[in-house]
Design goal:
- With 515 residues, this protein is an alpha/beta fold.
- It has two domains: 239 residues, P-loop containing nucleotide triphosphate hydrolases (Rossmann fold); 187 residues, Rossmann fold.
- Helices cover 32% and strands 23% of the residues.
- The strands form four sheets. A six-stranded mixed β-sheet has the order 6-7-8-3-9-10, sandwiched between helices. Strands 15-16-17-13-18-19 form a six-stranded mixed β-sheet, sandwiched between helices. Strands 2-1-4-5 form a four-stranded antiparallel β-sheet, covered by helices on one side.
- Helix 4 packs across helix 5, helix 5 packs across helix 6 and helix 8 crosses helix 9.
- The longest helix is centred in the middle third of the chain and has 16 residues.
- The radius of gyration is 23 Å and the shape is globular.
- The N and C termini lie far apart (66 Å).
- InterPro entries: AAA+_ATPase (IPR003593), ABC_carbohydrate_import_ATPase (IPR050107), ABC_transporter-like_ATP-bd (IPR003439), P-loop_NTPase (IPR027417).
- Keywords: ATP-binding, Nucleotide-binding.
Length: 515
């Protein structure tokens, strides 16, 4: 059999798939063809059915109706293990690598062989790395790897398990521009070897960059299936959500007094660059963006500012609390701090209902929450306001898609009747479609207008530039640039993110500057 014939025998086809969860219809009559050697982008609004379709292809869920074929033969995996044996594997958005284990040990944990043979596993992974043109450390605990290398490591493990079709759920959500480019280069190399890639993404420019084929879902139904060639991001956006209203112009805000301040922060982490003498001040009415490639220290900085990690040196002060290095997250929360972490799993409890997640602060044992417990009607109204789908207060959070879990988290932290004193948000729009991302940006701007001090960190430069009045750029645990938004060109920030700047940070703006 020739290589082209073998590839032809790997075509994965879904025909009229439907899936319901009780009264909720997640998919209806969806069809698609996944070709070997091609990147097939799968896009749509949050709750459009992307994750459900991916889980059907990967054997994680079974369809209510419809059928699938692989290489022209019926394909109806009973579970994920059966799909893996057939060569279909899914890399979830929340990576499944065990951080304490190396890549070799992670493979031994999930590999098909019953006997653990470290030498054979290492040889297989080394061969897979070479074949895929990927360089990832095999013997280091995966928690010490960068986000980009953890992503590549998960892909390599899937390939070593025998996958010829990879389903990647939002693989670029936590990657910076340079890392995204590197990942896409690797994906194209895999396609050249005959691997089929299903790429779930909300970044529509990525479709133009890397996709060969495109499926657009809207409310669980196909609205486009075919070639991605010639489609502009604006056209894809209209297929997804119709005409998107233009973002409102930036409103003038008066920058007030310092609300959040840190000085001389030194801290260490196993998953991020150590902080090395970081200073930061954020004033009432101000939105400060923090940019940097993964592992530059911005994640650790927000953990320290939020009281989740205690610095070995330096101080953190939030208005209403005493300055010092020992304030805990609970102290800051009671003083009016809202918090959205990079990993939503650190803040959303999947085994609790939507209502319980929204009221977790006011119902916690020993709580002295700054706001009372919302009524049932207010819970429902908040879910509707943040477009959480489905807006069922009694639904377990685990029943939501990743994007809707993100909206649930935003509803809790940003939707309170009382304006927070400060907001720490890491990638608040990650995993969100265009409409939802715009709504989150507008909410952050509204909170700043009400007097909150807002910090937004993200690997997505557009997310930072879309809201920030001032941009801090981090590299190797230090702030290497502090720019007013008028100075924050993509080129200037990009060079700073790569450590290619010797320019000292500019001074903070004066308190009464209008933005």
């Amino acid at each position: 059999m020739t290589a082209s014939q073998e590839q032809g025998d790997r075509v994965l086809e879904a025909r009229s798939l439907s899936k319901s969860f009780g009264p909720v219809r997640a998919l209806h009559d969806v069809s698609l063809v996944v070709r070997p050697g091609a990147v097939h982008a799968l896009v749509g609004e949050n709750g459009a059915g992307k994750s459900t379709l991916a889980k059907l292809l990967a054997g994680i869920e079974r369809p209510t109706a419809g059928s699938m074929t692989l290489a022209g033969r019926p394909f109806a995996p009973r579970d994920r293990a059966a799909a893996k044996r057939a060569g279909i594997n899914m890399v979830p958005q929340q990576l499944s690598l065990v951080g304490e284990l190396s890549l070799v040990e992670n493979y031994l944990l999930v590999g098909p062989r019953r006997l653990a043979d470290r030498r054979s596993a290492r040889a297989l992974l080394t061969e897979t790395l070479e074949r895929a043109g990927v360089a990832v450390e095999l013997d280091t605990p995966t928690s010490a790897l960068t986000q980009a290398h953890r992503q590549l490591g998960e892909i390599v493990v899937a390939l070593a398990e025998g996958a010829h079709t990879l389903i990647l759920d939002e693989p670029t959500a936590s990657l910076g521009p340079l890392e995204v480019g590197g990942l896409f280069a690797h994906l194209r190399s895999l396609c050249a070897l005959g691997t089929a890639i299903v790429l779930i993404t909300h970044r529509l420019d990525e479709v133009r960059q890397v996709a060969d084929d495109l499926t657009v879902l809207s409310h669980g139904e196909n609205v486009h299936h075919g070639s991605a060639a010639g489609l502009e991001p604006s056209q894809i956006a209209r297929l997804m959500v119709g005409e998107l209203a233009a973002a409102p112009a930036r409103a003038d805000r008066t920058i007030g007094e310092v609300v959040l301040a840190a000085e001389g922060l030194v801290a260490a982490s196993t998953r991020d660059s150590p902080l090395d003498g970081v200073d930061i001040t954020v004033r009432s009415g101000e939105i400060v963006g923090i940019a940097g490639v993964a592992g530059s220290g911005q994640n650790l900085l927000l953990d320290v500012l939020g009281g989740f990690v205690q610095p070995s040196a330096g101080t953190v002060a939030l208005a209403g609390t005493a300055a010092g290095a020992s304030a805990s997250a609970s102290v800051f929360q009671r003083a009016g701090l809202a918090w959205i972490p990079e990993e939503r799993s650190e803040a959303v409890v999947p085994t609790m209902t939507l209502a319980e997640n929204l009221t977790v602060y006011s119902t916690a044992i020993g709580s002295s929450s700054r706001v009372g417990r919302p009524t049932a009607s207010k819970v429902g109204a908040r879910l509707q306001a943040f477009d959480v789908r489905p807006p069922r207060p009694d639904l377990l959070a685990s029943g939501l898609s990743g994007g809707n879990q993100q909206k649930l988290l935003a509803a809790r932290e940003l939707g309170s009747a009382e304006t927070p004193r400060a907001v720490l948000a890491y990638g608040p729009a990650q995993g969100l479609d265009l409409r939802a991302a715009q709504a989150i940006r507008e909410r952050l701007a509204a909170l700043a207008a009400e007097g909150a001090a807002v910090v937004v960190a993200s690997h997505d430069l557009d997310e930072v530039l879309g809201v920030a009045d001032r941009v801090l750029v981090m590299f190797a645990g230090r702030v290497v640039a502090d720019l007013l938004i008028a100075q924050a060109t993509t080129e200037r920030i990009g060079r700073a993110m790569a450590g290619l700047t010797g320019t000292p940070p500019t001074a903070d703006p004066e308190p009464e500057v209008q933005v």
